[in-house]
Write a structure and sequence with these properties.
49 strands, globular, ten-stranded antiparallel beta sheet, Immunoglobulin-like
């Protein structure tokens, strides 16, 4: 009943089975007097008779009588079925910080297997981490290890319309994040959340280690606020992980579960961000000391028609027309050749890369390292002389595994690695500095076996392949992942596509924003999210605004129209309107991913997103429908202070208004309103305006607009805190340049023809 690779070690493992079965059949757990351990804000109530532990955070019971369970061979074993349960507290000092922990140990009756679980609470963090190990003198084998397992119902949220968040394993096949009402059974991947949309209170649970296991969060919810059962476990597979086989078994004399994160938050959105930060601590992301990339990718519109000529014409157009108007960051733009770059000769690829750099741009290339698009098993593997593709496939039940018409390749096979060497060295020698890696989920499939005998799970194989690529490239390229599992994260790449292919229309925008609605936090795991290609042609101007804004509020900027001589002339006209907005591009450069104001229902996207940069709040309000929508937005709900007065500057129309309490706006059909909201200091206070003149935006970096009766203005001065005049402005102009001034507080003094003076407080960023 215990699957092991060698008969010689089978008998000793089977010696453990009678003891385990004895407990399965005869054990009757009698609850004893629980012992309470205080771990910072966590209280753990441990029952020494059963080994079960109730997890309480800040006085709130989250998981009642949790225990680990694991599979040995075909048998699922619960902690309560072992014996000798003991618990002891200990001090912590590790990568997460300092704190207190609880160690629980148990064993089989004959002592042949030792169980050790730890719970860790930190001085620096509100969450709890837990995981366990199994040890034996003989080799163990398990494909299911659950540090959290409870079948005791527990009400954790306020009564109401509570929600379960389902997180997909990867971003293939246009999958969507989903929210479900309580009263269902669901398995989320790697992480899940349970929250009340009204109060935003919520529980977040997931894995922070991704080197071995695919982790599932299996829950059954009941009523309107109770989690009836919860299991967070390593060993999940399904069609949603693209697998046809069960999870591979982890083997050794000591085997470990994934490390699990648990935390209850007043705002579930902060909980998801804390979860992301914990993942980044567990596996630090790749360093990147440059700005957020702006760029173009050929798969947006050119696609299979890619050539040296049209790619060069696009790059020239961007250099001559868009970059001078602010479409760039850190003085560069990435020009990416996607699939079908092999339409271009080797020498012309070298030429393209060289010419791109000469324009102040950087060249990008594309590859899918873990797939065989040819599906020809008799073909020789590139870089090898006597190895065929049939030798490097990942098989399931003896058959090659196929996703999206491509066969999966074993990342651990030496011939697969020689193939990687060949392509990666080629890209480096040609001069490319940006690499988009695609269809990576193929490399994480469970398989009949892997070339490396120490690899027994899909995640182990995936990690080996990705680490090989990273070791080969070093820091010579910006690495972007396209179709890929959510985890492991930024230790292998700087950015990751947040959804699947999306292009121009409002439906593509809404689909992409579904992933931002519930996966914005991934730009804490990776350095940047990627919203895919922004295409302008073929849809309305409102859809152009909505699509470009979706990229701005998600992550890196990647546009995709055909700006060559064979493209539509309207593409250039629209690009110069939408890709050169100074204020919008400033947000793109400076802001992290926006997060949702309110969740949507089912698989839909949220329609409002916010982010704060210094003392400025940005708000994107979407209308995905075919009718105009009037909105009244509660300022406190989006994160502003009650009773304060603000300037709301809509960045696309360049219109501003003073608001307090709420913001009323109408969003045209299939369009967006994009607001920059700052405290209104125009009159020297945060209250209502008393002057006849107003400033917006305020604060500002490069320019500020003055509104009011300018025909009556005789003199306009900008005065620093020392009382010195630092700028004089032409009273006939309402656009006042403030670039080059030191950041700080200034007074704008307007003297009118009748001698009256108006003083407006201005903050220079």
């Amino acid at each position: 009943m215990f699957p092991v690779p060698a008969p010689a070690i089978l008998y000793p493992i089977r010696k453990l089975l009678p003891a385990i079965l004895l407990f399965l059949i005869c054990f009757v757990g009698q609850a004893g007097n629980p012992e309470t351990f205080q771990l910072n804000q966590w209280e753990l109530s441990f029952d020494g008779e059963t080994g079960r532990t109730t997890l309480i955070q800040d006085g709130r019971t989250l998981v009642r009588e949790s225990q680990a369970r694991f599979r040995l061979g075909e048998q699922l074993v619960r902690l309560e079925e072992l014996t000798g349960h003991e618990a002891e507290a200990f001090s912590i000092e590790d990568a997460f910080g300092t704190g207190r922990g609880l160690r629980i140990t148990a064993r089989t009756e004959d002592g042949g297997l030792t169980f050790t679980q730890t719970y860790r609470a930190y001085d620096q963090h509100p969450f709890l981490l837990t995981g366990f190990s199994l040890e034996s003198a003989q080799e163990l084998s398990s494909n299911h290890m659950a540090p959290v397992y409870s079948t005791r119902p527990q009400a954790i949220l306020p009564p109401g319309s509570n929600t379960v968040l389902w997180v997909p394993y990867d971003n293939d096949k246009w999958v969507r994040y989903r929210t479900l009402d309580f009263g269902t059974t669901v398995t989320s991947y790697e992480v899940g959340a349970f929250f009340d949309p009204a109060s935003r209170n919520g529980l977040v649970a997931g894995s922070v280690t991704h080197d071995t296991w695919k982790t599932g969060v299996l829950s059954t919810t009941g009523g309107n606020n109770s989690i009836n059962s919860l299991e967070v476990f390593g060993g999940v597979t399904s069609y949603e992980t693209r697998d046809v086989l069960p999870h591979g078994a982890v083997r050794g004399t000591r085997i470990e579960s994934p490390l699990i994160f648990l935390g209850y938050y007043e705002d579930w959105r902060r909980g998801m961000e804390d979860y992301a930060d914990a993942n980044r601590i567990s596996a630090p992301r790749l360093p990147w000391d440059q700005g957020k990339p702006f760029g173009w990718n050929s798969w947006g519109a050119i696609q299979t028609d890619l050539s040296y000529q049209n790619a060069t014409e696009v790059a020239e157009y961007i250099a001559e027309n868009l970059m001078p108007q602010g479409f760039l960051n850190d003085s560069t733009v990435y020009i990416g050749l996607d699939s079908y770059w092999d339409n271009i000769t080797y020498s012309n690829l070298v030429r393209f890369a060289r010419e791109t750099k000469s324009r102040g741009q950087q060249p990008g290339i594309y590859w899918s390292p873990f797939v065989d698009w040819g599906r020809n098993p008799d073909r020789t593997v590139e870089g090898s002389t006597n190895v065929f593709y049939r030798d490097i496939y990942l098989y399931a039940n003896g058959q090659p595994q196929e996703i999206a018409t491509a066969y999966a390749i074993d990342p651990t096979h030496p011939a697969s690695k020689r193939r990687m060497d060949l392509y990666l060295e080629r890209f480096i020698n040609q001069g490319f500095t940006y690499l988009k890696l695609d269809f990576l989920s193929h490399g994480a499939l469970e398989s009949d076996g892997y070339y490396n005998p120490d690899v027994t799970t899909g995640k182990q194989a995936y990690n080996e392949g990705m680490q090989y690529i990273l070791d080969y490239l070093g820091d010579r390229m910006f690495i972007n992942l396209s179709i890929a599992p959510l985890f492991p994260g930024g230790r292998y790449a700087h950015s990751r596509r947040i959804a699947c292919d999306a292009y121009a229309g409002i439906n593509d925008t809404e689909y992409t924003l579904n992933s931002l609605s519930y996966g914005w936090w991934l730009d804490r795991v990776y350095t940047y999210n990627d919203a895919d290609n922004v295409v302008l042609t073929g849809v309305s101007l409102g859809e152009n605004r909505a699509r470009y804004t979706s990229s701005v509020i998600t992550g890196i900027i990647c546009v995709g129209d055909n700006f060559s001589s064979t493209g539509y002339p309207t593409a250039k006209q629209r690009a110069e309107e939408f890709f050169t907005n100074e204020e919008v591009n400033r947000v793109a450069r400076n802001a992290k991913a926006f997060y949702p104001v309110e969740p949507a229902r089912g698989g839909a996207a949220a329609d409002m997103f916010v982010q704060t940069v210094e003392d400025t709040l940005y708000l994107a309000v979407y209308n995905y429908t075919t009718s105009h929508q009037s909105r009244e937005i509660d300022l406190e709900r989006i994160g502003l202070e009650r009773g304060m007065t603000y300037t709301a500057h809509e960045l696309w129309s360049d219109e501003s208004e003073i608001v307090s309490g709420s913001l009323e706006t109408t969003v045209p059909r299939r369009d967006v309103k994009f607001f920059k909201i700052t405290r209104d200091f125009s009159s020297g206070t945060a209250g209502p305006q008393t002057s006849d003149y107003r400033l917006f935006p305020n604060p500002a970096r490069d320019f500020v607009r003055l509104s009011g009766d300018l025909e009556e203005a005789r003199e306009i001065l900008l005065i620093n805190p020392a009382g010195q005049v630092v700028r004089r402005f032409d009273p006939a102009l309402n656009r006042l340049t403030v670039g080059g001034l030191k950041p700080g507080v200034y007074i704008l003094s307007v003297t009118t023809r009748d001698g009256s003076r108006h003083s407006l407080r201005f903050i220079k960023h």
